Amino acid sequence: MKHKALFVGLTTIDIQYFIDDMPVVNTKIKTGNPDILVGGPATNAAVAFAYLNKTATLASPAGLNAFSSFIDQDLNRVGVDHFDLAYGQEFETILATVLTSKNGDRTIVTHNPKEVKSTISPQKLIDLVKPQVVLIDGFYPEFSIECVRICREKEIPVVADCGSWKPQFADLLNDVDITICSADFMPPNCKTREDLFDFMTAKNIHSVAISNGGAEIEFLSKEKKGSVKVPEVKVMDTLGAGDFLHGAFCYYLLENTDFEKALQNAAFLASFTCSFEGTRKWLNFNHNA
């Protein structure tokens, strides 16, 4: 272990089917057995960080349900220490059905989580973990907003995974240092990427990146405005690639505080993960080989 990072947000159970083509209306498709995986933006980011760092810390609700032991076993296997925000409580697992076509594109059907009454306070969590960087994915806003406020007081850098606009981002982003946004992330009154950069600058966010699948990652940092190329690979599956980008970015940011270099290295790892089906097979290989 070199670094300490804390990932706060969503844990899901992803049921992933691999199919030749996306189904049309009123049809039934027969395919092979699905992969049943532990996922979620913050969770997958923690997995990528642990792959590079040997360990990471995740704070998310899992609670008591049919998947509790499955989640524990998976996170233990990949080196992620888990603070269960719903420990000892009955908690409804967030399920996602994923259809992945032969070109790697995926369609996801899922539902939003309910708010959780955490069994650990944000202050105690941060005091115990002593993270060098914190990533939030925007879920469980009451807990996350308090986390980022404490981080601002302690001068711990916060990275926000901005996949899609959620109302809580209006408050969350006030204490965030770095945002990595998907091309779909558009706050109110923003229509272009320039609008998005201006919005983040007005929030005093010093570094912003916008990812767009296999296209270049555009960024605006304190030093410059530019773009980072995403390596080309034979794409088998894109599920989790953006999350892995975020987790790898956190690791490389701690390795080298250069924002652009961290993005480049993270993009390399994220592309590598797309060469494998599912969100765990790639962990068995060396991405630098």
What is the fold's blueprint, element by element?
Elements: E1 5-8, E2 12-18, E3 35-39, H1 41-53, E4 56-60, H2 68-77, E5 80-84, E6 94-100, E7 106-110, H3 122-129, E8 133-136, H4 141-154, E9 158-162, H5 169-172, E10 178-182, H6 193-202, E11 207-212, E12 215-220, E13 225-228, H7 241-255, H8 259-273
Parallel strand pairs: 1-4, 1-8, 2-6, 4-5, 8-9, 9-10, 10-11
Antiparallel strand pairs: 2-3, 6-7, 11-12, 12-13
Helix pairs in contact: 1-7, 7-8
What would your notes on this structure say?
This protein has 289 residues and is an alpha/beta fold. It contains 8 helices and 13 strands. It has helices at residues 41-53, 68-77, 122-129, 141-154, 169-172, 193-202, 241-255, 259-273, and strands spanning 5-8, 12-18, 35-39, 56-60, 80-84, 94-100, 106-110, 133-136, 158-162, 178-182, 207-212, 215-220, 225-228. Helix 1 (41-53) crosses helix 7 (241-255) and helix 7 (241-255) packs antiparallel against helix 8. The relative contact order is 0.16.
